[in-house]
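Reopening this ticket.

The earlier resolution said the output was attached, but the attachment link was broken on my side. Pasting everything inline this time so it's all in one place.
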Amino acid sequence: MDKPRPREIKVEQGSDTWLKIRSGFITPSRFKTVVTGKARGLNSYLRELRSGEPKTINGPVAALEWGKYHESEALNQLRIIHHEDFKPAGFYVHPSLCWVGGSPDAVVRDPGSDAIVGGAEIKCPYNPDVHEETIFCGCPNNHYFQIQGYLWLLDAPWWKFVSYDPRHKEFSKRIFIQHVPRDEVLIDQIQHRVTWFHDVLRSGAEVPDDFDSKPVLDWKPLPRFF
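Inline output:
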């Protein structure tokens, strides 16, 4: 029997409708908090999710506009370099956890089955130093959690992490692309912890103060090698 697939809601990312739809959902961009967070941070996130208010995307206006303007450029470059049909995506809802979902920057679908076979997380940092550091250090830890979260949510085999800065003086370094395969150990951690956190969210309870001494899993931080 085929695994149940997440349901896609067709919506433009960044729109008012998108902000309303994703309100209250545990999203891959916050999976690092869910997996590694302590009681105080987890309860803060629970209050945010239960507030019922659409969560706006925070940050300096210039940085947000820069990222929005250049993301399509980065996506086109990715398509050319990897000869894959990366397409913008809507909002995907987990097939069994009704308050878990997310919006990948782009996905690749199997033309025969329409299953997700890959995707991309695209960053266009306003600060050029961030792009330069990514070139040398690879995908930052928090984005790695987000990517593995999408690999779990969409049951995909691989993802691409992209950092793009058209201002770089070396043309070959204007785009950085890293292939990210499934990390089954981390995906197991994500599935276990997100399922638990989803149950807490639906119950209306809070995470107890002594949670830090009673981790759900024997978590070990990821090494900074990517």
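Reporter confirms the inline version is readable. DSSP finds seven helices and seven strands in the chain. The domain at 7-213 is CATH 3.90.320.10 (Lambda Exonuclease; Chain A).
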